[in-house]
What we know:
The structure holds 2 protein chains of 2 kinds. Chain A is built from 12 helices and no strands. Chain A is mainly alpha-helical. The longest helix of chain A is centred in the middle third of the chain and has 31 residues, at 138-168. Chain A is flat. By secondary structure, chain B is an all-alpha fold. Chain B is built from 9 helices and no strands. In chain B, α8 (187-198) runs antiparallel to α9. The interface between A and B is large, with 43 and 40 residues.
Amino acid sequence: MIDFAFFVEIIPTLLSGLPLTLQLAGWSISIGFVLALLLALAQQGTHRILVWPIRSFVAIFRGTPLLVQIFLIYYGLGQFRPSLQAAGLWWVFREPYWCAVIALSLNTAAYGSEILRGAIQGVPRGLAEAASAFGMSRLLTLRLVILPLALRQAIPSYSNEIILMIKGTSLASIITLMEVTGIAQGLISQTYRAVEVFVAAGAIYLTINFTLISVLNALETWLTPYRARA
Amino acid sequence: MMDALHILSFGKGGWGAALLLASGVTLSLSVLGFLLGAVFGAVAAGGRLSSKRLSCWLAKGYGTVFRGVPDLLTIYLLYYGGSIALTQIGKFFGGAGFVGLPAFATGVLAIGIISGAYQAEVYRGAYLAVDHGQFDACKALGLSRLQSLRLVIGPQLMRHALPGLGNVWQLVLKDSALISVIGLVELMRQAQIGAGSMREPFVFYVAAGTLYFVIAAATASVFRYSEARAWRGMARA
């Protein structure tokens, strides 16, 4: 019943989309993480002029579908081509690739900043006070005390966000980027064998996710040796 | 700016009514999908908690697959897979040509399956959070399994489940935009149609985003209200 020959045929085709999927995910997860960290840190202060716009940005990107965000950046901003050309930014917004990266990065930055904000606030106050009693500067406290603890604390939640981003890259296929899901859709409409293609493409995504989760779990165990020994 | 207001107006040549109607489709699609997901989720949570190894294994597999595979891929599977099966059945009865699955029903099913995988985790966690003494009390009262679930465990379980369910609902609402790829005219698709015919993508996608945002905010308050109601009479820290 199971047609192995068909799997052997489609898997290399699907895998040809893997580099694009990984690239989109890699770019957006890295850019998104840096942005998320900056946004989370900026919200620790009490400057309302800084906090309020960030809160709005986070609310907007968490409250609307990723697809709307991608379309708004790719098609919506395309409407302002003359101004973008004048600003020398058209080469970015002309490419579906960069539009997808921008949309995915901003999206994950919004979710990630909430995760990191919570993690930073979860660091016991006494530790920061102890650091300042030692005469450490705020930046040094952040670098040596707060961030190491907060980032470790954030690993489980941030892993979920990373998996969501891997899944999110599939939306790039709607703006013509042929990554794994885009190729899968093409294969289904050519061969009419939805189940086999789903199984093969799904296996690719599950492998990526499983690998990432194992790496992140290993990272967490490595960073919390006292807990692992118990 | 006047242009944008005119495009989104409710009068002649305005798209306001069409977008609002499409928001209704989005909302009903999401609600039905979420409810179907509650059924799948409850069954899967039951499977995860069951002592039978096979049902536990099946429920785990369901969760892993549909939470790990892109939702778009699941939607394609159901739409094309269902249509192909339907075409085969059509051929069997002497019909000819491709039979497409109704997009709305496919959408509800897709959202149901995907959100069910997430809801299962919520229900499982909530079930485990119910104080163990309550189960013993049910036994002491001689309640049947179904009775204790309905009268004692269920209501208490919902207290713990509601925050998680609220998160899943937000996910569902945003996921419903993906159903536009199979041609259902919900909010996202309607915005695409408008953007194409008026050549004003920016206005339409901002409008669609705003409507999603409003629906999300309004429905979040429903969950907040239900949570407050579920915890009435209980002291909370």
